[in-house]
Structure prediction request, 150 residues.
Amino acid sequence: MKALLLSLLLGILLIGIIPDPAYSQTKQTPRSTAASGDSVGVIVNYVKADKRMQFERFLHEIFWPGATKLSKEEQKVFRQTRILQPTAAEPDGTYAYFFIMDPVIPKGNYDIENLLTRMFGETTGKEHLKLFTDALANEGKSYIEIQSRH
Prediction:
């Protein structure tokens, strides 16, 4: 009986941990990931609570779709980058969005301002960049790590 109760409790806990399918992406693009010894980049952007919708609109309606205007080689940067969305606020009230570049493409263009200019031209690119920068609470953090063998 005790084992049954523990199993039931574990099942309830796991159901609470499993993300709602509504939060899942509807279409996942197949991508390769870093091999042992490859560089993996992680950028954490901390977004103001009242600017989350603006930030997500920038990412999902402007920046990522704009990549179609770039060369196939430049689009690879987007295909090799994942975005992890926050599930809760940080202690300071901001929301942490993780960008995982897996693997980092040597000599790849990861400069948002430059990419926006190439996608939309200088004037519109600057307008879009303002949506991005105005949503940020601080400079964030960035890491370049090496993929282990596991």
Q: What stands out?
A: Strands lie at 39-47, 81-84, 95-101, 141-146. The domain at 36-146 is CATH 3.30.70.100 (Alpha-Beta Plaits). The two ends are 39 Å apart (CA to CA).
